Amino acid sequence: MMMDPAAIDALTKDQRQLFKQQLELFARYLKIDLRAGDRSFVDSQKAQSALQAQLDLWTTEHGEFYASGIEPQFTPLKARVYDSSWNWARQDALTMYYDIIFGKLTAVDREIVSRCIAIMNRSNPVLLDFMQYHMDHCPTERGETYELAKELGQQLIDNCKEVLNEAPVYKDVAVPTAPHLEIDAKGNMNYKEAPRASVRKLEHYVREMAEGGKLSEYGNRTKVQNDLQRIYKLIKQQHKLSKSSQLQIKSLYSNVIRSLSMNEGQIMPSENGKAAGGKCGRNGRVNASAKQGKVETIPFLHLKRKDDHGWEYSKKLTGVYLDCLEDAAKSGVTFQGKYALMTGAGAGSIGAQVLQGLISGGAKVVVTTSRFSRKVTEYYQSMYSRYGARGSQLIVVPFNQGSNQDVEALIDYIFDVKKGLGWDLDLIVPFAAIPENGREIDSIDSKSELAHRIMLTNLLRMLGAVKKQKQAYGYETRPAQVILPLSPNHGTFGNDGLYSESKMSLETLFSRWHSESWGNYLTICGAVIGWTRGTGLMGANNIVAEGIEKYGVRTFSQQEMAFNLLGLMAPAIVNLCQVEPVWADLNGGFQYIPNLKDLMTDLRKELTETSDIRKAVIKENAIENKVVNGEASEALYKKARIEPRANMKFDFPKLPTGTRRSSLLTRISRVWSISRRSLSSPALLRSVLGVTRGHVGRWKPTASSPLKDASKWLGSWVSSRITTVLSRARATLVGSTPRLVSQLTTRMSSRSTRSTFLNIPVSDSSSPSFSTAMTPGTSSLCKKFRLRRISNPSKPPRS
């Protein structure tokens, strides 16, 4: 019987209504809300929608790059600690010792001096005993290199003894370099770092920096003009003066400025009646000393002090700084007992060079990396193995400066005595940054905001966390020196997002040091880092660096800029920072170039045009040569790349002569001519015979060579005589693959066996001689004794 579902629903409608009323009645009696689940679901949907709206709003405002860039990475469990300088010193000493012995080291250059200084920085009594032992046991009678190794080694031991009780020092003996761009005939731009003329070492470099350049010249009259200009501005601001007084002061000021611009001879004629200018007087002489006043220059590297009108060049502070640099260049500077925190010290950066100087001076450094991996940790390990001095320590931790959680966790890890390092920081070098190239004012995106957070916001949070920890532990007498990475780029280059704003905002710390309460815990030393060649930010501008320097300014290599920054960490500058903030101008005179970007654009355009012209000329010459001399001539001018190839030669083996062959066959017959009665001998059952073949060459020459008949005859002879032995023993056949070794091995069941191997040179498996010589033996033996074939002849078969 079939019923319509609608009819069934109509019949049961009243019944279901009754059940529903009963259910609601019981629910009211039991005080149970039947619709609580529905309301909870609706509420959860609303909350989810609200949270999703907030998440969408946050992502829309900040961007996905910003969201991924603030994820925390720090964990103390991944910290890598490198402190075994004593061990690396032994390895370096042994390496130098054997380099001399084997002739790799014949002359003492700057690189060898640097390695010797590194060994001296890691000297200890155990190392001296280790080196002295090798010198005492050096066999000088073996040659000149051994005598040289002993002589130089003994000198190094004596030098290490002299500095055994001295603190390790950072001393760079590398050659200062200059930018050099060469455009070859093909139009290729080849940039390299070349030794700088007249600057052979860092002592000369310091003197060159102290001299300054043409753009940084200023005379006494210029200084007077600047002072008068300030006085005039102050007087002009006095609104109470009458207009006549203001006009009178303005006229007087104009006359003084005009008089200062004249020579003394123009103002006061000489007694001879002639001006002391370019023309001669009655006596025919020219007073050359009256032509101009004394000219001075502002050094390329100088310190500034703040006065009522801003930051001004301080000759006194600059003298202190230059003295520190000169001492560091001559005798080195030590950082023993110093605890430092460095960020932004990746490979190829200025921070990496600074880090090398710190650990070579004996400092203990925590360095952070946002790309924590095996490659990165091995890079820092290799750095410590080369530069780490006695007492130094390098700790590498994963860290994201864009994360506030990482900032707090890192500082807690450094200061925490129980769960961390228990350090009190002396130096903070926050150089972490990310590039923002190609972003103008209308393209500020999430990457720019993240960069601003890294270079400014979280840098201030890091300093605040250090202040909080020092205050908690009561470290009020040991403030940490902060090397602020300032920049001369105040929008000069453009297209760099919020980079300029981030660097300019750091300058407020100079005033906040006086107005806020953290002066007892942190000191400020701002370093205006100049044009540094080869870094990630300025590497693309290397090609115009040589042309820029011709205008009287100075660019720096990474080694030179690191030397400048390490000079700011000298004790004398640290003491100055404890009195007041110090502004270090390491700009190299670029502030005196008015239109730097236009100048760079013109230089780049000129170089590009030169390169394009030479490329066009070489292209035209190639086409002309191809037309005149043919296409085959072009191959003569192309560079051929030679790849390494094997050049192995296998000479044909010498065959035994008739007499020698007869002697060998006689010996073999004596070994294997055994009667049936002696086959049951236990001594024979412990013997194993192996017949192997070695590949001589290609099958064709082998098959047609004199070896063919010998291998055919000898293989058949051995195969016929080995059958008797195999009939009484378990055997294993080691098979061969084409062009490999073919072995025939018999093994006995006894564990203690004595093996005898007979090597028979036969031709290749694909040759006719192989089948003629070996087939009767191998095929019949395999069928008769069920021998096993092994695919890998290098592994022996099991018994």
TrEMBL record:
Keywords: Transferase. GO terms for molecular function: transferase activity. Residues 12-213 form the Fatty acid synthase type I helical domain. The keyword Cell division does not apply. It comes from the Eukaryota. CDD domains: KR_fFAS_SDR_c_like. Pfam families: FAS_I_H. This is Fatty acid synthase type I helical domain-containing protein.
